[in-house]
Each structure stands twice: as C-alpha cells, then as structure tokens.
Design a protein that fits this description.
The protein has helices at 2-8, 29-40, 66-75, 88-123, 132-146, 148-159, 165-185, 199-231, 285-288, 325-338, 342-371, 376-389, 394-412, 420-425; strands spanning 17-24, 45-51, 56-61, 79-83, 237-241, 247-251, 260-263, 272-277, 280-283, 294-296, 301-302, 307-308, 313-319. It is of the alpha+beta class and 463 residues long. The strands form three sheets. The protein has a six-stranded antiparallel β-sheet, with no helix packed on it. It has a four-stranded antiparallel β-sheet with strand order 2-3-1-4, with helices on both faces. The two termini are 55 Å apart.
Length: 463
Amino acid sequence: MDQMSDAATGRKDAGDRVIDLAVEGMTCASCVARVERAARKVAGVSGAAVNLASERARISGAGFDAAAVIAAIGKAGYAAREVAESGAAEATRRAADGRRELRHVIIAALLTAPLIGNMALHMAGAPLGLPGWAELALATPVQLWLGARFYRAGWAALRAGAGNMDLLVALGTSAAYGLSLVLLAQGWAGGHGGAPLYFDSAATVITLILFGKWLEARARRQTGAALAALAALRPTTARLRDADGGEREVPIGQVGRGDLVAVRPGERIPVDGVIEAGESSVDLSMLTGESLPVARGPGGLVPGGAINGEGALLLRTEAVGAETMLARIIRLVETAQAEKAPIQRLVDRVAAVFVPVVVAVAAATLAGWLLAGAGAPVAILNAVSVLVIACPCALGLATPTAVMAGTGVAARHGILVKDAEALEAAARVTAIAFDKTGTLTEGKPSVWRWRRPRGFRTRSCSR
C-alpha cells in the first residue's frame, strides 16, 4: 500500500511547489506555447505544462508567486485563476458553459441553413434565390454576435504580439463578410444576376467552428465526469470516537491525522487509516481491482473510499482529504491528462509558426492575383480561401483531446494511465503479462470444460 501511495502522488521533489491554474481564452497550440512561455519567465518557475483540452496549466517550481504567474499569463492575453481539486462548482460551471455553447450552435445553424440552401440553388442554376439584404440580415448576427469571441481572442493575441487560430477565423470570415458588404452597398448584387456574395461562406465557417468547439467542451465534460465519479467515492462525513468512548458525526474536513474513526458494517471508509480494533472484509475493488473482499484485522491498512464488510472497525487516521490514496489517484489521472505526449511536442513546434505562415501565404495569394490582372474581388476571395481553409485547429487540438478522452475512459473502467507517453506507447503493445490473475476474474468460478484423463475410471461405492 505504501508503494501504491508513493506512485499515486504524481509529485516531484519535496521542495517543489505545484499549483493548478484554469486558463480561459486558449484556442490552439500556439496559445498553449504562449502561456507556457509567459509562465516560465516568472522568477522561481521551473516548469509549466498547459493542456488545451482541459484548459488547465500546471506550474511547478520553488519560491514563485502565484499572483505573478497569473499576471504574466494575463499580460499574454489570457485569463488565469488558481483552482483546487475539481468539485461540484467546477462541474456546474462547465455544464452551464456547455448549454450556452449548444444554444449558440443551434442559433448559428438556424441562421446559416437558409444561406447554404441559397448557395445550393445558385450552384444548381436556379433563377430564384435570397435577395442580398436577406443574406446580410441572416449573416450579420452570426458574424458580429456569435463570432464576437473570435474577434476578442484574436485582438488579445495581437496585443501580445502573436497570432492564433482565432485571428485566422476573424481575418478570413471578416474579409468574406466585408467584401460581400461592399459589393452589396455598391449595387453590384441585388439578388439576381449580380456579382456573387459570400455571406454564406463566412457564416458557414463560424457555425462549423462553433460546433467543433462545442464537441471539444463535451469531451472535456465527459472526462470530468469520470474524475467526479472517482471523487464521489469519498464520504463527506466521518464518525469520530471521543476520549470518553462516545461517537459524533463530523464533516470530513474536521478529521485530523491520529483521530479515531468508527466505521460501521456496509459503510464506505472515510479516511486512510490503520485498524485499531475489529475485524472485517474490505472491498478494495475501486483501488486494486480485487474481485473479492479482503480480510483485514488490527494493524491492517485500509484506504478511504473502500467499502467495509460485515464487521465494525475502529481506525487510527493516517491521511485525510488531499493526502488520501484516492485523492492521489485522482491527481495522477489529472496529471496524465495535463502532460504532453511526444507527438504533441512536435505539433507544438509546428503550430508555433503555423499562423504567421498562413497569413503570409494569404497575403502572397492576394498580391499574386492582383499582379496577374485579376480584379480585387477575385484576389480577395482567393486570399480569403487560404485563411478559411486554415481556420480549423485540428492540428493542435486533436492530440490533447484524444489523450484526455482516453485517460478519462480508462479511469471510468478502473485503468490508470501514468502519463501521456505511456498512453502513446500502448499503441505499440502486442502482449500484456498480468501478475495477479485473481484481479482479472468476476469472482464467480464456474466449470468451463471437463476432460476425462486417459485411464481414469469411475467407481460407485455403496454399503
């Protein structure tokens, strides 16, 4: 059990301080790199690991000021705040954010659907279609209201002297929307036979990206639910034994190391402790995978969250709260989600130069078409196409989202992943050896096959 406790801590040297920050406003791997650089510049910070999918930053070091780290991240264009372990408040906030994002996706889809239908009619050569003013009325809320988040994030990146995927989205869709607005204002398009408008392209891109972001948030919430299920195994109260032999129920936060805790049959054990009196069988399946309860008596160690069997126990508390084995396991899963897989480090290096390169290619496309004698609308449209195609951030988002979803599903099934590197290496595993076959059974032995040995004879005996 001590070895398991050491493995579950997920900590570095004893002198290191580790804090977790919730970071808002990140949209791509470029954002991740910028937050990490800003945090590492703070005196005393030796390490910064930022996870895009969970929107968390784990800062480590000795003697650094958390407020200084938060201020440095804010100066880089992102909002950060210190968080403790994930709890009900965090889950409630994420659920509310998810409902709001889903509403935005539905509204954007309803406004964009007529524009897509109008585009399909034009491609089919139909003489009828939406007038220009109707396209403008449908596209404007999508561009300026639902798409306002891209402008805010893009502007924050520009102020920090960098670029991100939101900047590409804002540039690309604004160019398409602005070009269509100019054409409409000049009377070049009135809905019939005029120059084509591109309101549909801008609205479609924003709608698809909003849908993608909702899917990302949904994956994060599902993984958070797996961790919340682990955390729910910890009782919120404990039954303290007083010096006079009486018992009183208190919140778990009031239990200290060395206190005597009474556990009745069938209850979950609230703390990590050593049995002082009593014998029972303890269900450790939530930690060890043992299919059958294990006998425990005086001097035996029992972890918080395990289920007591048929006997009453009196425990001497060894660890409570964040120091229990269950809490350390939860931290281990969170650490595995926060760390980067080797392939993600390569992605981060590519993403660091991705946005500037895309903007440069779009500018070169615009200049090339103008030099070739094409009109301004054609040149702008081709430049916008470069920006629009490069908008989705699958490059920097797929890997951390996959790691987070994978570790969350594994935790839900009782499998703990040490880090992202181990998860990536698991794809190349061809054989697995287990040293405890008892943990791989259902605890229900049955006869699977019976074979009569050669020369074996059955005899009946009767009196």
